[in-house]
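Pair request: fold both.
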Amino acid sequence: MHLILVGSEYAGTTTLSWEITKWVKDALGDDFSFHDHWKAPYVSHPNSPDGDVKKMWVDWEAGNGPDPTMSGHTDEENQQYIDLSPKIRESFQRYHMEYHVGESFYGDAHHNSIGYHIDEAVYAPLYYGYGGPGEYADRQWYARHIEQDIMHRARDTTIVLVKASADTIRDRRNANPHKFSYLQEEDIEKVLEGFETQYNASFIRNKFEIDTTTATKEENLAEFVEKFEPHLSDTDRAKIMYRRQKKLLSK
C-alpha cells in the first residue's frame, strides 16, 4: 500500500493518517507507519522523551499530549532551522525528497507520506523563499520530477487530497495555533487553491479527495476505505480476506 496524503495545514492529514494506520493493523494485520515531516520547520520524525512513540500517538489522540509530528526538534532547533538561509533550506528539502523516493522506502510493502513534494510545491514559493517559477529547483517542476520516480518505482501509489473549507481551516487554526506555523490567515484560500492545483496536475493516476469540513474522523476513515478499495493490491486483498475469515472462525 503506497499512499501520499496531501492538504493544507489543519485540513486533517495527520488525523486521517493515524486512523489509516489503525485500520491497516486491524484489517491487514500489518504495521503501517507514515512520514509526516514536511511542513517546515517540522522536518523530523516524532521524538518521545521515553522512546515510546506509539504511546505518544495514543496520548495525542486522547487529547493528552502534543502532536507527535511537531516533536522532532526542540523549539530552539526549530528556530535554528527557520534561521537558515533559503538556499540551505532548499537544498536540505531537495535531498530530503530524493531520499524518500528511494528503493529503501518504495521497496517495502507499505509506504505512506504526508504532504511530501506537494507541500513543497505549495508552501516553498509562498513562505520559504525558494522554489518559485523559473527558479533553481522550481518546486512545481520538481514535484512532477519526483512523481516520475514514484510512478517508476510504485505505479500503485495513490494520492489523496484531504481538504476542508476555508472557514473550517481558519476556525481550526484559531482554536489550536501551531507555534511555528507559516500559514497566514489571509493566505488560506490561496493555499487551498494551491493544493487543489497540484493535486490536479499530479502525474499519479490513482487519486481521490476527502473533505473533512463536517465529517468525523470515523466518517473520514470510512470514506477513505470505500474510495481506496479499487486501488488495493492483490496481496492486500488477500490479507484482508484472511483476517476476516480468522475473525469469523474465532467467534
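--- second member of the pair ---
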Amino acid sequence: MAFFRSKTVNLLNLHYAIHGLALSGGGAFFAVYLLKSGISVPWVLATFAMILAGRFVVRPLVVPIAVRTGMRAIVIAGAVLTALAYPILAEVDGLGPALFALIAMAAVGDAFYWSGFHAYYAALGTHEHRGSEVGAREGLAALVGIVNPLVTGLILVTYGPRVAFGVTSAFLLLGTLPLLFTPDVVVPRQVEGAYRAALPGVKLFAADGWIGAGYLFVWEIALFVTLGESFVAFGGALALAALVGAVGGLVLGRLIDRGHGRKAVLYAIGALMVTILLRAAAPGHVALAVVANALGALVICLYMPTMMTAVYNQAKRSACTLRFHVATEGGWDAGGAAGCLIAALLAAAGVPLSVAMLLSLLGAGWSFVQLRRYYGEHPVVTEIAVDPLAQNAIVNLAEEA
C-alpha cells in the first residue's frame, strides 16, 4: 500500500489516532455529561451553538498568528488548549461560571486545532493517495476508539469526572508528540483570492455542520436518554459502533483513489440518509438505538474519506491551505451553530428530538449534489497537485535542519 510509505502522513495519522482516542473517551461524553450535571436538553444544544459561534468569531485570529509561528505550532497550540477544556468540563454543575468558561476554552481550542490540522494535513498529504490516506486515518481512529468509550464510562461511574476527563486531557497532550517530528509549513503573509477560492469547500462544510447538529449532537443526547442515562451503557454502545466502523474508511478510500468517486458519494450519502432515518425512529427503542449508532460509525468511515478527499485536494490546489481551511471551518461553524440553535428551540418548544435529527437530511442532500459535481469534474487523479508555497516552505525547513 503505497500511501503507507509517507513517514509524514503516518505521523499525522498517529497523532490523529491518539487525538481520536481522547475524543472517543471524554470527548464522546461531553454532551451527555452536561445533561447529567443538571443542564436541560435545550441548554445543552444551546451550549454547542455558543461554542460553534465562538469558534466562528475566534477563527480569523488563526492566520495572522500562523504567519509568525508556522502551521505546525497552530495545530499543537490548538490541541493543548483543547486539553485544557476538559478539566473545566469536570467542574460544570448546571448553568454557571464553569459552563461559560468551558464554552470559551472549547471555542478557542477548536478554532485553532481544526483549522490548523485540516490545513496541515492537506498541505502534507499526497494528492494521488488522498482517499486512502484519509480512509486509513478514519479507520485507525475508529479502531483505537473500540475500548475507550466503555473504559471512560466505567471511570466516570467509579472515579468521577475529574479522573475521567483528566485522562482525556492527558491523551490530548500526548497526541502532540508525533507532530514534533513532522515538517513545518510556512504560511505566506499575503495571498490574493485565497478566501474566494475556498467557496466550494465552505459550501461543503456548511452542509456538513448542518448534518452534524442533528446527526451527532442531538443523536448523542437521544441515545443517552434511550439507554437510561447510563454512562456505562452509553460507552458500550459507542464501543460497539467503533468496532463496526474500524475498517470501512480504508475500503472506500481506495475506491476513490481508483477513480470511482461518484460511486463512493452514492454509497456514503445513501448510507448516511438511511442511518438518519433509523436514528430518528430510535428514541425509546434500545435495540434499534444501538443498531443505528453502530451503523453511524460505518457511515463516518464511508462519508469522511469521500468528503475530505474533495476538500483536501481543493485546499492543496489553493494558494494557501490554512486560509482555505479557516474559511471552510467557518462554514462548518455557521452550519452547525444554526442547526444546534434550531434544535435547541425545537426542544424548548417540546418538539421530539427526532424532528431535529430529520433536519440533517437537508444537509445530506446538499452534500450529495456538491460531491457528485466535484467527482464528476475530477473522476481520476492523473497528477500530483502541489501547493508551491507549502512545498518550498517544507524544503527550506528541511534544508535548514
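Observation on the second member. The two ends are 29 Å apart (CA to CA).
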